């Protein structure tokens, strides 16, 4: 049975993994509060894989997680997939039905958000839902917590205190709470890209055929126009880049490496020859993984 480390129960990472593998897949899940522990579990061989959120359509790259992949652990990416970061308002419906809004028997009770005193969630989730909060709960205080899953757990532990959390439908189900409002994010194209890192390839029926190779390229400091030469080595071979991003090497000020996603397998003759040309320019190349990718299918 595969052992997989990930963020807490009910997090978007948890929902995303269940989407990838299916709820009936026999796996052993290990949940951790901090992403550092998720990384270290697989790096130390305590689990087979770890689930890492790496990029978001609204917020962009998760720089902390990229830095962990580059500087802290040496574990290859084995699969990449997209999952929508659907945030919901979660709490107890019975606490939000005021006396004046209680309906007669057989009719739907109208929810009043006036009794919400505090909204809790991760800072990123709160930022993604500000239009809903301002429109429906302008009186509510906002409190940031470590994760969306933690916010729902806090709401569960403090009944009758006017708390509501922003999190996943899975978190509401796990903690026995109600989804008070569905899909409250300001943008409906809020997707997160996840990678599964581990020592062995990961097999799933939901994985598409397309393969991507992620690599780091560090340029020589005394070579003017080196980045142009690197990109040319890929371009004339018609190798498509889906992503390029500069990040500090943390060795000295002004020293950067370039993170690149190439839409080709590392086994491709064209990519192999491009890497050889790049290395001939005295650039350092490190492969972070060559892996299948999959989009999001409902």
From TrEMBL:
InterPro entries linked: ACT-like_dom_sf, ACT_dom, Chor_mutase/pphenate_deHydtase, Preph_deHydtase, Preph_deHydtase_CS
The protein, known as: Prephenate dehydratase
Enzyme class label: lyase
Keyword field contains Metal-binding: no
Prephenate dehydratase domain boundaries: 2-199
Documented EC number(s): 4.2.1.51
Keyword presence, Amino-acid biosynthesis: yes
Organism per entry: Paenibacillus turicensis
GO molecular function per UniProt: prephenate dehydratase activity
Any one Pfam family match given in the protein's UniProt record, by short name: PDT
Catalytic activity annotation: prephenate + H(+) = 3-phenylpyruvate + CO2 + H2O
Family annotation (PANTHER family): PREPHENATE DEHYDRATASE P PROTEIN, PREPHENATE DEHYDRATASE-RELATED
Gene3D superfamilies associated with the record: 3.30.70.260, Periplasmic binding protein-like II
Pathway(s) served: Amino-acid biosynthesis; L-phenylalanine biosynthesis; phenylpyruvate from prephenate: step 1/1
Keywords of the record: Amino-acid biosynthesis, Aromatic amino acid biosynthesis, Lyase, Phenylalanine biosynthesis
Residues annotated as domain ACT: 215-292
CDD domains: ACT_CM-PDT, PBP2_Sa-PDT_like
């Amino acid at each position: 049975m595969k052992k997989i480390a990930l963020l807490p129960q009910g997090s978007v990472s948890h929902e995303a993994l269940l989407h990838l593998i299916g709820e009936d897949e026999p796996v052993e899940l290990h949940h951790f509060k901090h992403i550092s522990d998720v990384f270290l579990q697989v790096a130390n061989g305590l689990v087979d894989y770890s689930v890492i959120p790496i990029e978001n359509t609204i917020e962009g790259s998760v720089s902390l997680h990229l830095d962990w992949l580059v500087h802290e652990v040496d574990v290859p990416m084995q699969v990449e997939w997209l999952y929508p970061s659907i945030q919901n308002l979660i709490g107890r419906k019975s606490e939000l039905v005021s006396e004046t809004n209680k309906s007669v028997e057989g009719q739907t009770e109208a929810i009043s958000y006036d009794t919400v005193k505090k909204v809790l969630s991760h800072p990123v989730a709160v930022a993604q839902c500000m239009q809903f909060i301002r429109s429906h709960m302008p009186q509510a205080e906002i409190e940031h917590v470590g994760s969306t899953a933690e916010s729902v757990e806090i709401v569960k532990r403090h009944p009758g205190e006017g708390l509501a959390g922003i999190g996943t439908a899975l978190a509401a189900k796990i903690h026995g709470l109600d989804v008070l409002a569905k899909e409250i994010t300001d943008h409906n194209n809020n997707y997160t890209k996840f990678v599964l890192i581990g020592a062995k390839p990961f097999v799933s029926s939901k994985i598409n055929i397309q393969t991507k190779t992620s690599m780091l390229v560090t340029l020589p400091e005394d070579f003017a126009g080196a980045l142009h030469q690197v990109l040319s080595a890929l371009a004339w071979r018609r190798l498509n880049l889906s992503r390029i991003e500069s990040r500090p090497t943390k060795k000295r000020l002004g020293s950067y490496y370039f993170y690149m996603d190439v839409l080709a397998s590392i086994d491709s003759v064209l990519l192999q020859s491009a890497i050889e040309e790049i290395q001939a320019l005295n650039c350092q190349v490190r492969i972070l993984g060559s892996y299948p990718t999959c989009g999001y299918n409902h």
